[in-house]
Write a structure and sequence with these properties.
heterodimer, A: about 110 residues, alpha+beta, 5 helices, B: three-stranded mixed β-sheet, 3 strands, about 25% strand, iron-sulfur (chain A), redox-active center (chain A), metal ion binding (chain A)
Chain lengths: ~110, ~80
Amino acid sequence: MTDAHQTIDNAVKSNDVMLFMKGTKQFPQCGFSGQVVQILDYLGVDYTTMNVLEDDGIRNGIKAYSNWPTIPQLYVKGEFIGGCDIIREMFQAGELQSHMTANGISMRDTAA
Amino acid sequence: MAMDAHQIERLIREALPDATVEIRDLAGDGDHYAAVVVSESFRGKTRVAQHKLVYDALKGRMGGELHALALQTSAPQ
């Protein structure tokens, strides 16, 4: 197991909502990453991010970890949920909200 | 390296012959596309699995040669 794999695995397993992205919450450096941040902030979910641009090992390692070719990648309770398009579709359909609730993730009370 | 829309469509059709594929060049730069793919093979699969089928069809180009493909998948109504 490589260091990058270990780091990713730890992050995924020790954070209920874990987002691998380009840039940071405060300063996303890619529009797709930025969209996922906006959705999570809108829902008022507590989440942790890791900036893949700071480490090529993580940037490539995360693609191998999930067998998924693109970033951002969102994990909830250790499970890979999807990238930007999937998160947006799920959010618009209300599925992301119910997925969070089903996994015991609290959200700030947003207008129903 | 950019890919043209026809090449993307051809690769998807090769892997999913029944698919309806609609591709738009979002920025006119041959690098940012949106694709709507409708195929019977998506039925009953999770969104992750559906998108994975399309990424597999693109044979490793996604995330590399092809930087941005906004993807929407569904089974026929």
